[in-house]
Amino acid sequence: MRINVSQQLKEPIGSVRNYEVSEAVDIAGGSCLVQGEVRLTRTNRGILATAKLHTGVEVTCSRCLGLFSCPLSLDIEEEYFPTTDVVSGASLPLPEEPEWFTIDEHHILDLTEAIRQYALLAIPMKLICREDCAGLCPICGHDLNQGPCGCVPQGAGSDQSKLDKLA
Q1: How far apart are alpha carbons 34 and 154 in whole angstroms?
Q2: Do 75 and 154 sit in the same domain of this protein?
Q3: pLDDT one-digit tens code per residue, 3-51
């Protein structure tokens, strides 16, 4: 998601531009459609990008190992700093902050990396395809969401349960 901000960098501090976006971005190894609204505000140091975006990533359920689409809402707020002066073309010093995004020498602000980072942080730690996911049979590995398997439940007919009865 690349936006040319050369004209906005010439405008006074506080100038605002709004963009509707609908583009594919590579997130977690797959191409995901990202949609929403981006607001770019001129600051005294660069451009502040705020965005409300929606996407979905294809992930694996931690119970049944099935693939499903996990919807994500992203609230992005990042300041981008120019590397080149828009009027003179001279190189500009970058801020001393450890993590920053830049506007390239052609005055292109690229939101792709910020979107990717925010999306990766928004993916839940424990991924479950649905609340009542039954998971896999611990004996044969059958997906219990598709119905019961033919395995005897542990404890009912196992050798250990027979030994437990003798004790």
Answers
A1: 46
A2: no
A3: 999 999 999 999 999 999 999 999 888 889 999 999 999 999 899 999 9
Domain enclosing residue 45, as ranges? 2-133
Considering the domain architecture, whether residues 25 and 80 belong to the same structural domain is answered as yes
Other residues' Cβ atoms within 10 Å of the Cβ of residue 42: 19
Q: Does residue 29 sit in the same domain as residue 104?
A: yes
Positions of E strands within the chain = 2-4, 16-27, 30-42, 47-60, 67-82, 101-103, 108-110
How many residues are listed for the chain in this entry? Answer: 167
Which amino acid is located at 44 in the chain?
N
Domains identified in the chain, total number? 2
